[in-house]
Description:
alpha/beta, Metallo-beta-lactamase, Chain A, 7-stranded mixed β-sheet, globular
Amino acid sequence: xxxxxxxxxxTGTSQGVPFVACDCQVCRSDDxxxxxxxxxxxxxxxxxxxxxxxTPDLRAQALRQGIRRLDAAIFTHSHTDHVAGFDDLxxxxxxxxxxxxIYASPHTMADLRRMFYYAFDGQHAFRxxxxxxxxxxxxxxxxxxxxxxPAEVPHGRMLVNGYIFAREGRKLAAYFSDCHHVPKDVxxxxxxxxxLIIDALRHEPHPTHLSLGQALDVSKKxxxxxxxxxxxxxxxxxxxxxxxxxxxxxxxYDGLRLEI
Length: 260
């Protein structure tokens, strides 16, 4: 049995792919792997299941993947494409009949409290409503048998959390969905990681995201055993991009499940 499973619930940029009112080759593609919901992953071990980010597409993602249980939700940052599905956590609170632990940096938690004030004010703590149990991330923590190690990376002018997932002291995967570079100390933290999941928005440089070339450079510096690209725009068609990638790097797609 795998130590850890990761399912890509979405691999798209903030607008999703296809873009609205776009007639480019990727947006008009018949390849299902070019249809990308907003970026999020589901992490599973034998004793625990949790989300990283609640995208605007969470309901559709949960239905597609048949998610019936969540033990927690973790947030990278508070941009809309990563939090707007927060209210869809309500069904999982109802199913378990308990509050759902949510984890975020102090800054992101403050934004969640502001954006979804009704969920935190204690006046709507009904069985069939979203009931967050907030936990501010200031250091590594555990959800069941999975250790979660936060790693700050720059995303434009802000710092956001990437995450390293470990079990029994062994680092298994790292997730950096939004960043425009990865600092040297973070690369040192993930050196030799079995699976690296990293932002690769497009071919051209971008002020808040890694380009394809920059993502490949991070993968090489980190000596990742396997790298999967995510948070992808409509510049990168799945089939065409796969042809130009090194053997140890793949372009992720919605529904892809990794067993680590």
